[in-house]
Amino acid sequence: MATASLSTVQLAPGQAAWRRFRRHRLALAGAVIILVLVLGSAIGPYLLPFDDTYIDIMKRFAPPLSGAHILGTDELGRDVLARLMMGGRVSLSIGIVAMVMAMAVGIVVGAFAGFYGGVVGAVLMRLVDAVLCFPTIFLLLALAALTEPGLVTTTILIAATAWMAVARVVEAQVRSLREREFAVAALAFGSSNLRIMFRELVPNAIAPIVVSATLNVAKAILLESYVSYLGYGIQPPAASWGNMLNNAQIYLTSAPWLAIVPGVAITLAVTSLNFLGDGLRDALDPRMNIP
Amino acid sequence: MARYVVNRLAQAFMLLVIVSAIGFAILHMAPGGPLSQFAVSGQMTQDDLDRVTKQLGLDRPLPIQYLDWFGRMLKGDWGKSYRDGEAVLSVISSHLGATLELMATATIIAVLLGCWIGILGALRRYSLFDTLATVGAMIALSIPTFWFGLVTIYVFSVKLGWLPAGNRQTVGDGSFLDLLHHLIAPALVLALVETAMWGRFMRSSMLEVISQDYIRTARAKGLPEWRILTVHGLRNALLPMITVAGLQFPTLLGGALVAETVFTWPGMGRLFLDSIGYRDYPVVMGILMFSATMVLIGSLLADILYAVVDPRIRVG
């Protein structure tokens, strides 16, 4: 009698996640678009014969695809493609750096609140609730109005208004993980609280943290575009996707490409990151099902 | 029920205290603090500034100042605008109507359209409509609101000439039709993100309800499908939407600020930006506190209302 050899192929967790992620076509497309935007912004300016801040008053308002300027020129005759690429460096960097800062604050606050619970947890989480009461754009603009605008301030302020969601996610994870056997074992082992929090609990919550981080980059890029569009973020002559739209409304009739080009770049980046985050959520933790 | 409401009120008051402490801290971050207006004007010597500081009690310890400030906030004394000396609260209330008009219109559009899309998506899960709606919602949530406003102005005002490019009414006109004509574009722009959110939440709420046991029971009883979906399904699926309305409030307010800016709509968001431009800190802080308080009250009302319609919530 032959033994039925029904061997199940055991996939490593990473492999299984990659399979699930690959099925999510929009997330894959998002990843590719993000890669293109990052590479284009990083390398593009070296390949272009134009400088992003070079003013050529004789060639202002050249429409796209007319002559040497692929995406046309703006109200001062600067090359729009060069500004788009340099602006991409600024906007994407702000998105990533602000995300890292927001994650750091959110993870620390969430870990402490979830681990200690009780009064510490209540105070920290009520603080999170209180900051969430302020509509983000109002809070961001009020803070921006009180400080000197610039690259560093804008990044810090965006992080200051974006850490709360992460804190909530991490708090819930840590609160439930700390009751699990491995955490109790670590405690019995004599590990310090800090070690348990950041070497045992937080790494086990990595899936929702990665998803949250991806969505956070998208949010930060959106927020940068809002403050810079309103004139309180990145200051010209430096370009960012947001401040390229700053003057676009005035020239909407005569030079619509000034409004369309940067807006498409922002929408592409944010949509891609959101789809990527969605795909990662499905891939890393199939149980998580947040609308 | 009374217990739940009292508990929830106490929570809300505690949140208000923390919110106000944050607001107070931000106010003191202002360059020159609360006296910056006089310091900037250059008409006061250092002696004068010191004297005014004493008169206004700004030399007292910060916690005492905070309690004093919080007490005055509760009484409705929110300070005076630097620009024209008008009371902050009356400046805000004179702009509130326009904002509420915009927000209410956008919400009505978003609730009707969003719920319809969400319900249909849930009933025909993974159909072409559902897929398109899901992808469309994600894109709608990713478009910067102000840029969508610019595109709307370009298409409908510049190219087609159908809609006015901004403002609440034509100067000298002000008839209902004129007001409506001006309202369409900003309300639709504001409604985009809201519709996407409502659609997503409605879809998942409906999906959850139609997998419940009582729906199966209703089917087993042989009730007609439309009756199952409306009376048993929809009624229960709509309940959690009360919470969504509360959750969506901050986003709605923030979106209103942006839409008002693009469409030069004379509301609170526009006032906020103008005040920032004039460095009119009392009004800026007033609107910041006002909007946070509105959000707080909104979520409080949503919670209480939800407890009224769904008795299960009251426990715990």
UniProtKB/TrEMBL annotation, chain A:
A single GO cellular-component term on record: plasma membrane
Regions that span the bilayer: 26-48, 90-115, 127-145, 151-170, 201-222, 255-277
SUPFAM superfamilies named in the record: MetI-like (SSF161098)
Cellular localization per UniProt: Cell membrane
Chief site of localization: membrane
GO biological process: peptide transport; protein transport; transmembrane transport
Membrane topology field: Multi-pass membrane protein
Keyword Cell membrane tagged: yes
Stretches of the chain forming a coiled coil according to its record: none
Domain ABC transmembrane type-1: 88-277
Domain of life: Bacteria
UniProt cross-references to InterPro entries, sorted A to Z: BP-dependent_transpt_permease (IPR050366), MetI-like (IPR000515), MetI-like_sf (IPR035906), OppC_N (IPR025966)
One Pfam short name: BPD_transp_1
Gene3D superfamilies found in the cross-reference section: MetI-like
Keywords from the named record: Cell membrane, Membrane, Peptide transport, Protein transport, Transmembrane, Transmembrane helix, Transport
UniProt similarity note: Belongs to the binding-protein-dependent transport system permease family.
UniProt name for this protein: Peptide/nickel transport system permease protein
Organism: Bradyrhizobium sacchari
From TrEMBL, chain B:
Ranges annotated as spanning the membrane: 12-30, 102-123, 135-156, 176-198, 237-263, 283-309
InterPro entries, per the entry: BPD_transp_1_N, MetI-like, MetI-like_sf
Localization: Cell membrane
Domain of life: Bacteria
Keyword match Manganese: no
GO biological process: transmembrane transport
A matching Pfam family: BPD_transp_1_N
PROSITE patterns: ABC_TM1
Membrane protein topology class: Multi-pass membrane protein
Family, as annotated: Belongs to the binding-protein-dependent transport system permease family.
Record's protein name: Peptide/nickel transport system permease protein
Organism: Bradyrhizobium sacchari
